[in-house]
Amino acid sequence: MSLATDHPVSDWKHNACILCECNCGIEVQLGGPQGRNLVRVRGDDAHPASRGYACEKASRVDYYQNGPHRLTRPLRRRADGGFDEIDWDTAIREVAGKLAALRDTHGGSSILYYGGGGQGNHLPGLYSRATRAVLGMRYQSSALAQEKTGEFFVAGCMLGGITRSDFEHCEVGLLIGKNPWLSHGIPRARVTLREIARDPARTLIVIDPRLTETAEIADLHLRVQPGGDAHLLTAMVAVVVQEDLVARDWLAAHADGVAEVLPHFSAVSVAECCAKAGVDEALVRQAARCIARAGSVASFEDLGVQMNRHSTLVSYLHKLLVLLTGHFGKKGAAYRPSSLVPLFGGVNGGAAGLKRTPVTGAPIIGGLMPCNSIPDEILSDHAQRFRGLIVESGNPAHSLADGPRMRQALAALDLLVVIDVAMTESARLAHYVLPVASQFEKAEATFFNFEFPNNYFHVRRALLPQLDGLFSEAELHARLVEALGALPQEAVAALRAAWEAGRADFRRAFVGLMRADPQLEVLAPVLLYRAIGPLLPEGSAEAAALWGVCQTASQKQMASIARAGFDGPAPEAADALFDALLASPSAVVFSIDDWAESFQRVATANGRIQLAIPELFEELDALAAEPAPTGSAEFPLVLSAGERRSFTANTIIRNPAWRNKDRNGALRMHPDDAARAGVVNGGAALLSTGRGSAKVLVELSDRMRPGHVSLPNGQGLDYGEEGGPPQVTGVSTNELTSNEDRDWFAGTPWHKHVPARVMALE
Ligand SMILES: Nc1nc2c(c(=O)[nH]1)N[C@H]1C(S)=C(S)[C@@H](COP(=O)(O)OP(=O)(O)OC[C@H]3O[C@@H](n4cnc5c(=O)[nH]c(N)nc54)[C@H](O)[C@@H]3O)O[C@H]1N2
Ligand SMILES: Nc1nc2c(c(=O)[nH]1)N[C@H]1C(S)=C(S)[C@@H](COP(=O)(O)OP(=O)(O)OC[C@H]3O[C@@H](n4cnc5c(=O)[nH]c(N)nc54)[C@H](O)[C@@H]3O)O[C@H]1N2
Ligand code: SF4
Ligand SMILES: [Mo]
What is the 44 CA–ligand 4 centroid distance (Å)? Predict the structure, then answer.
């Protein structure tokens, strides 16, 4: 983008794009009236994962950084619903006091934590651990618990943790309900996809009802009926089993449960499943054989199936397809990545081992309770209901299912505290809004580090000074913990003195403090921030807690970290890694694995892959009797509520002007469906679901499968020009989704499968 520049344009500075999980390295020039605009943005050649790549969205991050949406003063809600600006001392004292009162009266587990980071800012989640621990908070959730928890349960049972895949080197690339051309999710997505598609020796397989940008270049497009993936994947696994394409020797060496699993597929009617899935049987057989016979398969499932019917089961069928054909732990296939900060807690003991929420007993997977259960856990007279909620870097009033019910739940809380850079839909409902410095005004990092065999971590230093009156979440949590009387100043002083004396002294002092008072361990992030934050290079104070992270990671993954050049005794290697992270303007390779490492990382009880997940067999076996998903007379269409488009980025950018085209986020619809509804291209229509109605503008598209309509994600945000009233642009999809439409097991929503109807409007 270009902006009028009264200020001399700065040198190129390194940072990362924050608009999707890839966090591509970028270089930025600052300029504009106060030198605070990100006037030019380009891909960073020095970033070892993105290697100069950036998509069209990165050039528009200034719309996130600057604008009237930015908050600069803490706000306290009045009885009449308006807000008063208050000073920081008052804000911290009152918020800490009210949180402590909830803890003292109802217990810390009456306060829920939601968020902790969006696509590129995961340090807040680390610092908040201290606040949560002091308050005795036990429950948390985040957007991951409305998409990834089903997959995580399956991966946890089968492999002891998440897997990712090596698309760069795969022979076959398989995408299930995922459109990386627009949503990315793998580094340099378009380059990698094009390479697979162009190479006659490689095959790109896409499972999607839409002719997406990715499907368009695919070798095989399985244009599944919306919601038909469970039948489709069952058919694919059945082909592998019935045609004896199972990798028996490989499985004998690495996996248990083959004999238990295969009978569930040996009698399946492939023809019937294909018919229900709406895909030609010959094509399904071709795809299944191609996967089974390939030297390597990389695969990725995403929202098209994770926010859809049978989502946990589909994740299981996907893993079975890949594992029964042996595509794990080799170049071009699936692997278990290393991690500096694990995103999920473990899953031990299957469903029976899962902790449960207090009111409805919803499963807590990887430490996260289902987002869809949040209202149920608030709107109840159960003694153990949630009464307080801290939202940090998330926007549940907009992003979670059933907006009206979510708002009702948020309004029923005794205390809602929202920590954000912007006045969001959630912030408007808060008792206190605590504004923070933006991701370009503090040190930040992403914990979405999934690459293999080389894995990367990027500490981004602040690009800009913090807006007057603002500071980071690290500072905020330090102040909250201090106000709660839990941060021992002697410990801070001792650690600071030790850091100045040298790293060996510091390690000794740190370990000594933790031994003397094990309670201090939970405070480590804020303790480190207070002690050494001010001593770190300019713009990197918030990286302080990573010192502890490096120490833990170097013990757990010593060999991988050593291969990346951080060798020697674990504590010293950790310090060397920490220093390298802080010194490098771009990402650093923190671990290097060999392919065999993936097998060593299979963290099941006996270290072998476990193919059987008995909890899911009943649902699997019942598929045979389940009819194909069809519309009703009332709702003949299926709405995908929240498709990724060129200019959508969750709710990270609020100003609709960042979209040159499709400003209102059109409803895409097949011409035949439109003709039936009497709707024309560009015309207005009323879109209705069981939950609500919205006025939409229609775009006719023969890329849609008849019967399937779609709306983009992240629209319907309110935004006011300087001084003007806020205006809402586009449809907020969750006004149309319902809370109960969710996976029976993981509780993940069916946002891609909302029964709907469309009526022309004058
Ligand atoms: N541009 C952009 N990129 C983003 C984001 C963004 O907001 N904008 N958000 C990021 C985030 S948080 C995430 S989680 C990812 C999500 O990334 P994706 O999951 O790739 O995104 P979606 O477009 O929501 O859904 C993917 C596909 O599912 C298909 N689909 C719909 N119904 C079905 C079905 O029944 N079966 C199958 N097989 N497919 C179906 C849709 O047609 C769509 O092409 O994107 C990330 N990247
Ligand atoms: N119907 C439907 N709903 C969906 C989806 C869908 O496809 N359909 N997609 C879902 C998916 S996959 C996801 S991941 C979620 C996302 O849902 P959420 O994680 O709840 O929301 P985000 O839109 O990512 O919100 C990020 C928030 O962080 C704030 N923020 C940005 N920078 C900072 C910072 O430095 N500090 C703090 N404290 N805050 C900051 C932004 O202003 C914004 O309010 O939406 C989900 N909702
Ligand atoms: S792929 Fe994602 S992180 Fe990379 S430039 Fe595009 S939006 Fe930003
Ligand atoms: Mo997401």
Answer: 24
pLDDT band at 746 (very low <50, low <70, confident <90, very high): very high
Task: Give the integer Cα–Cα distance in Å for 501 and 41.
Answer: 40
CB-based pocket (< 6 A), ligand 1:
20, 147, 176-179, 182-185, 207-210, 212, 224, 226-227, 229, 302-305, 308, 640, 642-644, 648-650, 713-714, 752
Least distant ligand from the CA of 435: 2
Calculate how far, in angstroms, residue 144's C-alpha sits from the geometric centre of ligand 4.
7
Minimum-distance ligand 3 atom for the alpha carbon of 22? 3
Q: Say how many Å lie between the CA of residue 309 and the centre of ligand 4.
A: 17
Nearest to 213 by CA among 641, 643, 642, 709: 643
pTM: 0.98
CB contact at 8 A, 373 and 747: yes
Residue 33's φ and ψ, nearest 5 degrees, are -50, -45
What's the CA gap between 346 and 368, in Å, rounded?
Answer: 11
As for ligand 3, residues whose beta carbon falls within 6 Å of it are: 17, 19-20, 22-24, 54-55, 57-58, 184
The number of the ligand nearest the C-alpha atom of 58 reads 3
Residue with tokens 């990386």, as numbered in its chain: 180
CA distance 360 to 363: 9
Who contacts 139 (Cβ-Cβ below 8 Å, separation ≥6)? 109, 112, 113, 357, 358, 364, 369, 386
Q: What pLDDT score does 346 carry? A: 76
User: Do residues 100 and 475 make contact, with C-beta atoms less than 8 angstroms apart?
Assistant: no
Q: Which residues of 476-498 are buried (b: 16+ CB within 10 A; e: fewer)?
A: bbbbbbbbbebbeeebbebbbeb
pLDDT tens per residue across span 162-199: 999 999 999 999 999 999 999 999 999 999 999 999 99
Cα of 391 to ligand 4 centre, how many Å? Answer: 17
* Domains (range + CATH), the chain: 1-66 (3.30.200.210), 149-341+602-622 (3.40.228.10), 631-760 (2.40.40.20)
